[in-house]
């Protein structure tokens, strides 16, 4: 049986609502289970070699995608079953609500003047060294993480869900999680994580562009967002974080980028939105609200896109008879 665009639309909306209401469970999350499995594969395959890393990427991304494809195929016989499967997969791969909660918790600690608590919570949101940051730098790190993870934890997954259904949702989350685990430039993962990082660059490309476009449309300063995104996106070392962070910087009227510290490794990144003011604690809440608007628009875009493709396919089949 052919894919069911209406079933996907209903399931994706229900899964999005589930994430909005429930967030991520503290125990037993499927993504956490995937992380443990990927770590076990890494322990068996690790060598300081790109080929071994590519094998891990193939197993850890291809295996869940193949399993999801089998489940989706079995569920096609029943629209309610397909809707339920799509809803469960969408809820499992989205992380927008937990992203907002963590950001607001750090913002609340900063607003109360408790920088130590903010430092303790920052690793829940990003991999930077919190001890090297003051309150203003923590606020900037949070806004940058909200921007990047709006693409990684929400929009990118919805894009691949619209393109590939449940297998697309699962494959994107597997690739993105694997990149977070091994796709960085530490001595251990510089070669082993290369394949996962490049695969994530490819998978994240469409979602990052859609996130940036929606941030321009949904932000409080569309003109500023467009100006900074067009001028500064390519200056960022990441091909996908660049457009998203630049669009958020312009939309919120803040300055992002600069010196970053990751577990003893210091990076000096270009400044995005250099003419804007530094990030303040209140901008964390503004970034979370923008993220939620972008996420909702991304759901609508994914649903409309899937329904439009389905309608075109039905029209083409009728014309060919």
From TrEMBL:
Pathway the protein acts in: Cofactor biosynthesis; adenosylcobalamin biosynthesis
Membrane topology listed for this record: Multi-pass membrane protein
Keywords of this entry: Cell membrane, Cobalamin biosynthesis, Membrane, Transmembrane, Transmembrane helix
Location in or out of the cell: Cell membrane
InterPro entries with a match to the protein in the record: Cobalamin_biosynth_CobD/CbiB
Cited function: Converts cobyric acid to cobinamide by the addition of aminopropanol on the F carboxylic group.
UniProt similarity note: Belongs to the CobD/CbiB family.
HAMAP family in alphabetical order: CobD_CbiB (MF_00024)
Protein name: Cobalamin biosynthesis protein CobD
Species name: Streptomyces aureoversilis
């Amino acid at each position: 049986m052919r894919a069911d665009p209406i079933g996907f639309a209903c399931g994706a909306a229900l899964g999005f609502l589930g994430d909005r209401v429930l967030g991520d469970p503290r125990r037993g999350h499927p993504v956490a289970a995937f992380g443990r499995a990927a770590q076990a594969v890494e322990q068996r395959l690790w060598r300081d070699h790109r080929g071994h890393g590519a094998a891990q990427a193939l197993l850890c991304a291809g295996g869940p995608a193949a399993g999801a494809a089998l489940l989706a195929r079995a569920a096609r016989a029943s629209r309610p079953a397909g809707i339920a499967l799509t809803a469960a997969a969408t809820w499992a791969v989205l992380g927008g609500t937990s992203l907002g909660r963590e950001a607001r918790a750090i913002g609340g600690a900063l607003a109360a003047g408790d920088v130590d608590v903010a430092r303790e919570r920052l690793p829940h949101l990003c991999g930077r060294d919190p001890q090297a940051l003051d309150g203003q730098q923590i606020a900037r790190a949070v806004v940058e993480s909200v921007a990047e993870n709006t693409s990684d934890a929400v929009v990118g997954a919805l894009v691949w869900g619209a393109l590939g259904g449940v297998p697309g949702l699962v494959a994107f989350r597997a690739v993105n999680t694997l990149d977070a685990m091994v796709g960085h430039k530490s001595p251990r993962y510089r070669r082993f994580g290369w394949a996962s990082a490049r695969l994530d660059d490819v998978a994240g490309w469409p979602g990052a562009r859609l996130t940036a476009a929606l941030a321009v449309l949904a932000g409080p300063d569309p003109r500023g967002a467009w100006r900074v995104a067009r001028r500064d996106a390519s200056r960022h070392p990441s091909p996908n974080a660049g457009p998203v962070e630049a669009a958020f910087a312009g939309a919120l009227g803040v300055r992002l980028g600069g010196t970053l510290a990751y577990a003893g490794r210091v990076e000096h990144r270009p400044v995005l939105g250099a003419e804007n003011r530094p990030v303040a604690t209140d901008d964390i809440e503004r970034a979370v609200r923008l993220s939620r608007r972008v996420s909702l628009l991304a759901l609508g875009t994914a649903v409309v896109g899937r329904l439009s493709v389905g309608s075109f396919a039905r029209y083409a089949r009728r014309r060919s008879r």
